[in-house]
Amino acid sequence: MDTPSMSLQRLTALRALMASQPTKLAAYIVPTADAHNSEYIAAADARREWISGFTGSAGTAVVTASQALVWTDGRYYTQFEKEADMALWTLMKQSLPDTPSMESWLSTNLSEGDVVGVDPHTMTREEWTPLQTTLTRSKMKLLPVASNLVDAARSQLSDPPPRRPCNQVVALPIKYTGKTAGEKIKELRKKIAEKKTSALVVTALDEVAYILNLRGSDIDYNPVFFAYLVITPASSILFWSSGSLPDTVTEQLKEEGVKIEVKPYSNIVPYLQELAKNEAAGSGRAVWLSNEASEAIHRAASGSDVLNQPLTLISEVSPVALMKLVKKEVELEGFRNCHIRDGIAVVRFLRWLHEQVDDGQAVTEIQAADKLLEFRKEEDDFMGPSFETIAGAGANGAIIHYSPSRTGPQRTIHQQDMFLLDSGGQYKDGTTDITRTRMMNRSPSPEQRDAFTRVLKGQIAVGSALFPLGVKGNVLDSFARKSLWDVGLDYAHGTGHGVGHYLNVHEGPSGISWRPYPHDPGMKPGHILSNEPGFYKVDEYGIRHEDLVEIVAITKESDHPRAKNLVGDYDGRGVLGFSTLTMVPHQRECIDAAMLDDLELSYINNYHKRVLSTLGPKLKERGLVQDLEWLERECQPIVRG
Amino acid sequence: MDTPSMSLQRLTALRALMASQPTKLAAYIVPTADAHNSEYIAAADARREWISGFTGSAGTAVVTASQALVWTDGRYYTQFEKEADMALWTLMKQSLPDTPSMESWLSTNLSEGDVVGVDPHTMTREEWTPLQTTLTRSKMKLLPVASNLVDAARSQLSDPPPRRPCNQVVALPIKYTGKTAGEKIKELRKKIAEKKTSALVVTALDEVAYILNLRGSDIDYNPVFFAYLVITPASSILFWSSGSLPDTVTEQLKEEGVKIEVKPYSNIVPYLQELAKNEAAGSGRAVWLSNEASEAIHRAASGSDVLNQPLTLISEVSPVALMKLVKKEVELEGFRNCHIRDGIAVVRFLRWLHEQVDDGQAVTEIQAADKLLEFRKEEDDFMGPSFETIAGAGANGAIIHYSPSRTGPQRTIHQQDMFLLDSGGQYKDGTTDITRTRMMNRSPSPEQRDAFTRVLKGQIAVGSALFPLGVKGNVLDSFARKSLWDVGLDYAHGTGHGVGHYLNVHEGPSGISWRPYPHDPGMKPGHILSNEPGFYKVDEYGIRHEDLVEIVAITKESDHPRAKNLVGDYDGRGVLGFSTLTMVPHQRECIDAAMLDDLELSYINNYHKRVLSTLGPKLKERGLVQDLEWLERECQPIVRG
Q: With contacts defined as CB-CB under 8 Å, which chain B residues touch A514?
C-alpha cells in the first residue's frame, strides 16, 4: 500500500499535467487496459494501479481537479477500501443499480464546454464511441491525449514506469500447432481479398502469437509478447521492440512459408497513418481491424489525424479470433493429452494435501499453491501456471477472485475447512483450468452437501446437454443454474469461458453466461469452453466445480449418455454435445446421491471410471502406487442410500 | 394472385419512376413496415404486397432496373412461390446461411456511385444506420425519398392506395386501465425533465393508445389508431387525421387531467422540423424518441434537412414501452378475469369440435375458427380476435404461421388429425392468446404422444421455473427446449412474447427466445408473457402448447410448487416465478405420465384442478351442464402406469 502522502503527490502531479495541457482537461480517465486490450497486463501498463493504489484486475479511475474516483465491481469493494487512500479516492460500486455509470457521472458533474482526456491507446473503439456520444450530448468533449499523463507524472516524480518487457520469443513447432503460419496467413489473405481491404491490423497479443506460431513471456501467465502484426496482400509486418527476430524463429517462419518484416513497436501509428494517406490518394480501400483495437489504432488506420476526409474502416470481431476459436485436431489432441498430465499433478496434490491436514501439519494456502506448482513441474511440457492460483480455505473460498497473498498473515487449511482450488497450467500442447472443492475432514454439513450436489447437478446439466450446432453458448447458462435457482440460490459469475491453446486461459469471443456474448459466432465442434458453476456462502465457504470441455458432434453412435435416444438432428442443423477434458474426481463424501437422477448418477460414476482408467495406468507406470491407491478410493462408484 | 401482366406493369411503372427521380435510383427498397413500425399493417400500407404480389407478413422487396427480389424467412418460401410471378421475382431465402443479406447483395450487385432509394417513413433508424454504413463503404448512397414511389406508381396505374383508415376512437374507462392519462403524462414529463429534453415523440400506435387510454380500430386485430403524440413539458399534441376528437373522448381526457391539442396527422414532419429549428436557435436541447421510430421522424426531429448543424437526438428504447410493460394491478386483474371468460369460450368450442368430428360432421378449419369466434362473442367485453386464428389440421398444423384461407379448397378436420388451434381475443379488460393441440380420435401414435409430452414438459419447465428478479427473458428459453433437445428435436420459433393490455398481442421489448431481446429491461412482477413451446413434423402434424403467464414475486409462503423449498432469495435480488393465466386443459390422452417426474405430474394435475374449480362454477351458473361435464372429464387427475 502506498502511503497517504505518496497518493496525494501522485494525484497532484497528474492534476498539474491536466491543467497545463494545450487544452485544459477537466477530467482524465485512467482505464486498466493496455494498448492491446489484454486481460492481464504488464507492470509497464499498471497506470490505474499507480495512480489509485488499487491493484484489482478491473476498474477505471477518473481524476478531476477536486475529485478522484474508481469504478469497479463487487469482487473488489473490500480490496479497494484496503488499498486506496479513502481520504482522496471515492469508490463507485458499479454493481449497484443506483451507482451512476462513468459516462453519466461525467456528464452530470462536469460543466458544458469541459474537456475529458484519455490516452486513446488504453480504450477500445467500442468503449470510446458511446462515451463520446454521451459527452457530446452534454456539450462536453472527449479528447485523445497522445502521450500518457500518468506515465508523465511518474517520470516527474522520479518513479518512471518500468520498461515494457521484450522477452525472448520462441517458435512453437508444427507438432503442437497443427497448422503453419504460412497457411494461417494465406487464409487471412483470402479474406482480405474478399473484403476488398488494404490490410488486416492484428492488435490482440494472443492473435499475433497464434498466427505466427510464436510464444513469449512479456505478460505473466499469458505466453505472449508485445507486438502488432499487419498483414497486407503482399507483406507481413511485425511491430516489435527487440530489433530482429532470433534466428530459430526466423528459420521456423521461413519453413512455414512466412517472410516477415520487423519494424519498431512504436512505429505502428505512423505506419498506419502513412497507409491511410496512400489509400486515400489511391484506391481508397478500407483497413480491417478488430472492434477491440484501441481508439488510437482506429484513428491511425482511418487517417483521422492526417486526412481531411478520414477513410471508412472495417471494424468488427477479429477474423483471427474466429479462426483461433476452432481448434485444429492437433491442438485438440494436445488439450486431451495435457489434461491427463495435469490431472495426475492435481490428483497427487489432493492426496498430499489431505494427508498433511489429516496429519495435523499446518499447510497455508500459499504453501498449497506452491506444492501444486511443484507437482505440475514434474509433468512434460509444463511451461508455468495459466493464471494465479485461487486457493481459498473456509471463508476465503467464498471470495470469487481470491488469491492468497505472500505477505501478511497466512491462512492455514484446517480439517473443518471447505477448500476451493482453482488453478491451471500452460503446457506446450495446451492450457488447463480446473477447480475442485474439498471438505478437508470429509464430513460436510447437510447444507454444504446439498450445495455441493446442486453445483454438481448444474455442471452435469451442461456437460450432458445436447444442443443444435450454431446456437450461442449463452443458451446453456440456465442449465448450470437451475438446481440452485430452484431453491433461491445463484452464483455471481458466468458459467463458461473460451480457452486458448497454450495461449490465454480466457479467450473470446464465445462463452456461457446470462450476459450475451455479442460476437459469439455460435458453437461448433472444436471449441473449448470451461464448465464451472459455483455457490458461495459469504464468510463461510465457497464451492466451484470447473472442467474444461471440448465441443463434439454427436450422432446415435457417439459415446454420449444421450446418444442412443436421438430421434432427430435438429432438422439437419446437427447435434452438439461436450466431451470433458479435465481428469480429476469430485469428492464422493460431498455428493448426496439421493439428489441425483439416474442419468446424473451414471454420469458421475462413468466420469470417475474414465478418470481412473485414464490416469491409473500412468500412475502405475511411474511407480506412484500410493497416488493410484488414493485415486482408486476416490473413484469408487457412488450408490444411492 | 395478380396476373403476370399486372405484375410486370407495376414493376415497369416503379422502374420508370426510379429512373425519373431528380437523383436516378439504381435500386428502390420496399419494406413491409408502416410509418409506425407496426407488426400488422393497414391496407393503405401494403406496398410490398402490391408491388410483389406476396402477401406474407414479413419480407423486404428490392427493385433494380433489371431485377426484382424479396428477402423473406422460412415461414414464407412456399407461399412466395405461389403468390409472386416467379418469372419476374427472385426469392432470397434469408434463413439459409448462404443467402447474402440485402445489404451485402446491394453492395455487391450495384456499382460505385449508385444511389439506393427508400421511403424513410418505412424504415427505422436502427435498420437505416447499418444499411447506410455498408453502402457508404461500397461508395454507394442511401437516399431518403420523401414521397413513396409505390404509392405514386399505384396512382399512375389508376389503382391508388386505399385511404388510410381513420375510424372512431373510443375512451377506455379508468376501471380497465387503472391509471389516468394525466398520471401517465405526468410521469413521462418527469422523465423529460430528468433527460433535459425538449419533447418526447411517441411514434408506436399502441404507445399512443396506451398513454391516452384510448382505443381505435384502424388496424385489424390491434385496437389502435393512426396518430403520433408529442409530449412537451407544457403540451400534449396528437397528430391525427380526423379533425377534432369525439366529445366523449375529450371529456374523458379532461376528467383524466389531459388537455390535448389536435393537429393533422401529416403535420408531424414539419412540426418536428420547426421544433428542431427553435431548439437550435434556443436552448439546443435534444428531442427524445424511440429507436424504433422511422428514419423520417429521426431526420425531422434532428432538423437534418433544415439545419446546417443537426441536433443530437436521444434515440433509445421508448419510455412508454417500458411503462406499459409493467401492468397495473387493475390491468392484471383484467387479464385474470378475461382469461376465465376466454377459457369458457375455448372449452365450449373444444367440446363442440370433438362432438362434431365424433359425429362424422365435416367441419373445415375455417368453420372451426368461425365457431370459436361465436363462442367468444358470447363473453362479456369481447371486442374481437387478437390475431388471425391459426386452425391447422394434420399437416397444416406443422406450418407455423398457417391460417386457413376462405377461398380455394377447404381442409376438413378428420378423426385421425392432430389439430392445432392458436387463437386469442381482445377484451376491454385484457388480451388473450392460447394454443391447444387436440388428437381428434383421442388415440395419438406413440411418436405423437412422446412429442406432445416433451412439449408439455418444456412448458412446465418454464411455468414452474424460479429465477432472479431482473434477469432477461432469454435465460428461460432453453428450459422450454430441453426435453426436445435431449432427443435431437427443436422448434423454429421463440418461446414467449410480451402481450399488451387490450392492445397488441405481440408487445415488446421483452420476450423469451434464444435470440437476445437487446432492449429487455429484465423481468419484473407484473409483466405478461406467453409460454409456448412446440414441435412440428413437416407434412404430418404440429403441436404447440401456449399459455399466457404473469410474472409474480415468490416467497416461501407463495402458492407455487417450489415455494416451500426456498432457502435463499438470490442474495436479496428477489425470487420471481410465473402464475398461469390461461384456463383450458391439455388433452390427457396425449400425455405420457411415465415421462413426467413427480413435480411435473403434480403441476399438470394441479393446473387441471384449478381450471375446473375456476371455470366449473361459472359453467354451472350459466346452465352449461354438458360443457361442465366435458370439462370434468378432461380435468380428471392423470396417474402413472
A: 471-472, 475
